[in-house]
TrEMBL record:
Membrane-crossing segments per the record: 29-47, 80-101, 122-142, 162-183, 190-208, 248-266
Source organism of the structure: Streptomyces alboflavus
Classification lineage: Bacteria, Bacillati, Actinomycetota, Actinomycetes, Kitasatosporales
Keyword RNA-binding attached: no
Superkingdom of this protein's organism: Bacteria
Keyword Cell membrane: no
Protein name in UniProt: ABC transporter permease
Keywords carried by this UniProt record: Membrane, Transmembrane, Transmembrane helix
Length: 271
């Protein structure tokens, strides 16, 4: 009987965090607006290609597909930037909101094991954002390719690299959300957390140079460049290229590090 109690208790924490997440009216709207914005950007790009593709371009269809442009339009850079920002904000709000209202104090009073509480938050957020990211990525892929197929320039999920693009675009969501949650746990203020999240996920990748070794080392440790490496295998990344395995490693390290910060930092700080 005693061996089953910890697991049962953690299940209770998961259930509590799930209820807290969806009890906020803003939660469904945040996910819905993010999905519409991201998919809308991608569909708009695909529609522009469809609209301006003429019979004169028909001979370029093979080159268009060979160059990976249909995959690039399945999940565009502008869309992923919105996705990163929104997911980071959602992750931050998950924990910062509780600190702001004082609900976290009540939770810790009821459950003194702070690490278990934060681990439950991490698990719920990671699970929800992974499913959400997968839904957005797959809907975006099939929608854009359906549009491009009207000009015979769409590709299927079995096309070389297509599944990798979808998975990379889906899994960047929990990475960004967990990053926002970790920063929120450390800073505990929405404004400063959002600024830190934007800097970490969007600003740093823009200021690093692909031609300087130390700058490239920084770039190769960031989620957005990792997403580009996975979704743009034919792109030129300067004199210091990196592998797909390295890009996937960046995803894993950021997610695990963010989860660890969220779980273990609370024991070292007063709520």
């Amino acid at each position: 009987m005693t061996t089953g109690e910890p697991a049962a208790r953690f299940r209770d924490l998961l259930a509590a965090e799930w209820l807290k997440l969806w009890s906020l009216r803003s939660t469904p709207w945040a996910y819905l607006v993010t999905a519409l914005a991201v998919i809308g950007f991608n569909v708009g790009q695909a529609y522009d290609t469809y609209r301006y593709w003429t019979d004169e371009n028909a001979g370029d269809a093979d080159a268009f597909i060979r160059d990976g442009i249909p995959l690039a339009e399945a999940f565009t850079s502008n869309a992923v930037m919105i996705h990163l920002l929104a997911a980071g904000a959602i992750g931050a709000a998950t924990v910062v909101g509780e600190y702001g209202t004082g609900l976290i104090r009540t939770t810790f009073a009821a459950v003194p094991d702070r690490r278990a509480v934060m681990a439950a938050k991490v698990a719920v957020l990671a699970g929800v954002t992974t499913v959400f990211g997968a839904l957005v990525a797959f809907v975006s892929f099939f929608s854009t390719q359906a549009i491009l197929s009207g000009r015979d320039i769409g590709v299927s999920l079995g096309h070389p690299g297509a599944l990798r693009v979808v998975l990379a675009s889906a899994l960047i969501t929990p990475v960004a959300a967990l990053t926002g949650m970790a920063l929120g746990t450390l800073l505990r203020h929405m404004g400063s957390t959002l600024v830190a999240t934007v800097v970490a996920l969007l600003v740093l990748p823009m200021v690093v140079s692909p031609d300087r070794y130390w700058s490239v080392l920084i770039a190769h440790c960031l989620p957005y460049p990792a997403w580009r490496r996975l979704t743009e295998p034919g792109a030129h990344f300067g004199p210091y290229p990196w592998s797909e395995g390295g890009a996937w490693t960046v995803y894993a390290v950021w997610a695990l590090a963010a989860a660890a910060i969220t779980v273990f930092s609370v024991n070292r700080r007063d709520q």
